[in-house]
Amino acid sequence: MSANALESRDFRLLFAGSVLVSFVMPMQFLTQVFWVQERYPEREVLFIGLLGASRGSAMILFGLVGGALADRMERRRLLIATQMAALAINGAIAGLMLAEPFGAANVAVLLALTFAAAANMAVDQPARQAATPAIVGMAAVPSAIALQMVAQQVTFPLALPLVGFLNGRLEAGQVYAMTLLAWAGVLPLLFALRFRSRGQGAAGAGVVRNVLEGLRYTRAEPTIFAVIVLVLAIQLLGMPGPASLGPSWMRNVLGLSETQFGFMAMTWGLGTMAASLFYWKRNDLPGRGLTLWAGGAGFGLCALVFAYSRLVPLTALANFGLGFMLVTTMVSSSTITQQRVEEAMRGRVMGLFPLAMGLAMLAAFPVGAAAQATSMETVFPVMAWATLAAVAGAMALQPGLRREAPRTA
């Protein structure tokens, strides 16, 4: 088995901060949704959709820039800077929700601040990922990636009931302000870090040139390129249906009540949590190409079952599988990329992952428009088959990827 990342003092500090941030992020998003629903009931669908679009567009625009910065700067300082910026931006959002100083323009300011917060996160993520090998050593990278996924997936279901409870008793602005307390823990943890990891990119060149160099490097490396194509296939084709339009599918196609939908949605969360814990215990598996191939193919097959099933138990099983296979794909793709990429390009290549997430957020709009024009029963199977075909195509790009094995140096 690979080394345990928790043996590293600096990783324990970084992990604790990630747990705090992962806990408050869904609370902040849902509190924004509640605020919009209360203030703009006649346009809530439009404005909530724009909130998602602002996040997605920021991650697309700044994911590659964040990767370039991670390859130009000292990564510990960059992490401190992004989290200080996160506190300032989220503080401004809390102030806006509490004071509402701009009248009818409040929602426009909220969208701008949400864009800024997502852009800041898109800079933070590549720096965090690029610094991981320097903190734990290459042998413990699979363990570190799995633990970071645990931080995201375990805290999410814990945060949901709390945010509902708080918003039922307090104003949305008050709840959002309470989330700022997380940075009272995050910032001291970051300042206590001792590691140093300076990007080896060409700081003398412009950021745009750095970004283009990263894209050329990714395209020229067959294994890394195949991994990124597979990730894009899952995010662009596989996620918009079950993830973005899943609530409408549950209500309109399966006829579930709101309570039944809650239990159905929980099966996805259980799948992601189970996978996160599994790969934490079996951290020798994510660095294998066969694991990545199985995760991508498994996601496509589960999407097919989800699209054709009209039986609630079978759909619940498919939903669990989608969550499990998504984590399998993300943990494996990150691990293989970390093990393959050159240090000088690490930040820029890892910056492609938030870019893929941003594209998935924006893809929900055209997929939803197609479903509105035809039907979800028509669009979902098409997207599922396209996902499976794209995964097969990614593996065909680099057949040797299935034989990829963990690297420890």
TrEMBL record:
InterPro entries xref list: MFS_dom, MFS_trans_sf, TM_effector
SUPFAM superfamilies: MFS general substrate transporter
Pfam families associated with the record: MFS_3
Bilayer-crossing regions: 12-35, 47-66, 78-98, 104-123, 135-155, 175-193, 223-241, 261-280, 292-311, 317-337, 349-373, 379-397
Location of this chain's protein in the cell: Cell membrane
Gene3D superfamilies referenced in this protein's UniProt entry, alphabetically: MFS general substrate transporter like domains (1.20.1250.20)
Membrane topology designation: Multi-pass membrane protein
Mitochondrion found in the keyword field: no
Domain Major facilitator superfamily (MFS) profile: 224-409
Annotated keywords: Cell membrane, Membrane, Transmembrane, Transmembrane helix, Transport
Domain of life: Bacteria
Name assigned to this protein: MFS transporter
Protein species of origin: Tepidiforma bonchosmolovskayae
